[in-house]
What does this fold into?
Amino acid sequence: MHERVTPALPQAEATGGRIVALDRARTFITLSVVLYHSAINYTYFGQGGDRMHWLGFELVALFNDSYFMSCMFFISGLFVPASLARRGPPDYLGGRALRLGVPYIASIFVIMPIAYYRYYVAEDHFFTVWWRMISEGPWPSGCCSGFRW
It folds into this structure.
């Protein structure tokens, strides 16, 4: 039998044009965001969700709040100069607008009304609530702003 031996790559080396450390950092930050959003409903800060609270989830939320958004912006910002150089500013901005803007607009008109409708169920039909949210604005944001608990 022939045994295959693969030489070990140093941690900071790129494999296949990718930097392994940045891939691991992106994975860690993504898992941190999932953990945060899973735990926030069971904290004092996530008012409007479950009435049960646990100190452990509050500590997770506080710890993640201290770093994960800035770290995510930093990691994504590392790739902007290379992308700008490769695609040029107009193509880069157009791609960003399409990739981020279309889901954002869809979330405003579709996902957010469905998510907020549960607060108005006793009040009106879905389309009445949807039209009020779209036409009157501003959208309720944060805890306790305009919601009837």
In short: The two ends are 70 Å apart (CA to CA). Strands lie at 14-15, 18-19. Helices lie at 20-39, 55-65, 68-77, 80-87, 89-117, 126-135.
